[in-house]
Each structure stands twice: as C-alpha cells, then as structure tokens.
C-alpha cells in the first residue's frame, strides 16, 4: 500500500481515501465535527486542519497521496483548533451545565480535548428560533454548529428535511415543510437525521437526562478514544462497500 507520514508516523492508504479516512483507519485521531464516515465530507468546521507539505488543508476533504508529509500536532495547529472551538461556542448559545446533551456532546468533548478553559472571544448571544412543533423531535437552533450532518443524513434518506441557508454569521438551519416547522415535515423519530446531530440541536423528546452523570459517553473517555472506537470501523466498512460496488 502507498504511504504518507503524519507527524512522522507512516500511514498506509487506499487510493481514493482522504487523509482523514486513512488516519482514522490507521488508529490516528484527527479532530473533526462536520465529518462522519458514512457521509460525503462537508469541509466546513475546519477542525481537521492539517499541513500537507507545508500547506494548510482540511484532512476530511484532502486526498491522501504517496509521500505526503502531514503535520497534525504542531503548536500552531493546536492553537488554531482551540480558537476554532472557542469560536463555535461564542457563535451559538451553548449552556453546557444544563444542556441535556452534556456529557454526550461532541462540541463539549472537543472543548476538553483541545484544552479550552475560556471562550477567548466575546459572546454573540444570537437570537435563534427553537422549534418544538414536532411530537417526537426538538430542534434547538441555539446549539446548532452548522455541521450539515442532519442535512446529509436526511438527503441520503430521500427526505431532504433540513438545509443550511444564509452565509457567514447569517447561516441558519431551515426545515423543508409548508410552514417551515419541523412538525409539518416528513421527519420521523427513527430517521437517521433525528439522531446524527453531534450537539444538542436535534434531540429526541423524552430522552433527556436518562443517562446519569458518570455513565455518559464522554465521562470517562475522550472524544479521540470514542471516535476511533466508533468511527474507524465505519471508514473501513465504507471503503469495502465502495470496492465491492
Ligand atoms: Fe449539525 Fe445538528 Fe446543526 Fe444539523 S442541527 S447542522 S446536525 S449541529
Ligand atoms: Fe474537516 Fe469539519 S471535519 S472541515
């Protein structure tokens, strides 16, 4: 197999794989929020930023190539990931201590992973609409980080319930229904799109706080450990499925 190096470690890859896919399959965690192995990459959060032969790239979209020298953990890139994470916190309204996703939230877990101890930037406190119109699913836009995973999941399910609209700080999540309300959309509680949100923006009702503190996903394990355990096998499965078909 061809190889590239990541922080000096040899990473084998299959032609067509991205740097993210190859690294995860090799057991090397690259921080990410908008990437999930089952969906096409979105390339929006930039937390997967690496330097490839000295050039800044998104590992989730950049194709792996023989002989590349990839840097992940330089001081500069660690600082960049910290600032990007802090920006995500101040751009939305995230109140971890009483959020039902606390302990199971990828943004919160990433905050711990990158060593975030303050927000660094002033809070935006944006005004965003909460949509509780669906009988089974709550949409709390305050917590949305615009990763687009619900958009891709719903699109792949053939329903197209969610879409991102606007640009920059005006970006917002819209719902495909006559009224724009989730309750009038085709979303079902068992849809993948209702469960893929990495933060607490889309949550299934009447499931909050069921897992006690101490037994939540990230209470004892880091996002790096959980991601490698859960997502690395999906990278391999997706690659095998592509090969077969
Ligand atoms: Fe991502 Fe969740 Fe926002 Fe959808 S609602 S874009 S999954 S953060
Ligand atoms: Fe690569 Fe979000 S994970 S840009």
Could you please describe the fold and organization of this structure?
With 245 residues, this protein is of the alpha+beta class. The chain folds into two domains: 3-79 and 224-244, Ubiquitin-like (UB roll) (Roll); 97-204, Alpha-Beta Plaits (2-Layer Sandwich). It is 25% helix and 15% strand. It contains five helices and ten strands. The chain has a five-stranded mixed sheet with strand order 2-1-5-3-4, with helices on one face. A three-stranded antiparallel sheet has the order 6-7-10, with no helix packed on it. A hairpin with a 6-residue loop joins strand 8 (162-165) and strand 9 (172-175). Helix 1 crosses helix 5. The protein is globular, with a radius of gyration of 18 Å. The mean pLDDT is 96. FE2/S2 (inorganic) cluster binds at residues 32-35, 43-48, 58, 60.
Structural key phrases:
about 240 residues, alpha+beta, Ubiquitin-like (UB roll), Alpha-Beta Plaits, 2 domains, 5-stranded mixed β-sheet, 3-stranded antiparallel β-sheet, about 25% helix, globular, binds iron/sulfur cluster, binds FE2/S2 (inorganic) cluster
């Amino acid at each position: 197999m061809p190889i590239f190096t990541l922080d000096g470690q040899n990473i084998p890859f299959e032609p067509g794989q991205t740097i993210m896919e190859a690294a995860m399959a090799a057991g090397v965690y690259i921080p990410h929020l908008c990437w999930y192995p089952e969906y096409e990459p979105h390339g929006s959060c930039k937390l997967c930023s690496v330097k490839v032969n000295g050039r800044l790239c998104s590992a989730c979209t950049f194709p792996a190539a023989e002989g590349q020298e990839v840097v992940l953990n330089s001081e500069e890139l660690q600082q960049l990931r910290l600032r990007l994470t802090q920006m995500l916190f101040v751009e939305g309204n995230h109140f971890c201590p009483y959020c039902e996703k606390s302990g199971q939230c990828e943004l919160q877990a990433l905050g711990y992973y990158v060593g975030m101890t303050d927000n660094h930037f002033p809070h935006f406190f944006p005004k965003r609409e909460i949509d509780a119109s669906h009988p089974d699913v709550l949409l709390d836009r305050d917590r949305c980080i615009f990763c687009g995973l619900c958009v891709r999941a719903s699109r792949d399910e053939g329903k197209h319930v969610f879409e991102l609209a606007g640009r920059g700080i005006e970006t917002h999540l819209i719902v495909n229904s006559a009224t724009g309300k989730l309750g009038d959309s085709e979303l079902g509680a068992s849809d993948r799109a209702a469960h893929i949100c990495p933060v607490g923006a889309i949550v299934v009702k009447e499931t909050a706080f069921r897992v006690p503190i101490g037994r939540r996903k990230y209470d004892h394990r880091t996002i790096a450990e959980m991601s490698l355990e859960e997502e690395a096998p999906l990278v391999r499965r997706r690659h095998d499925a592509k090969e077969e078909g």
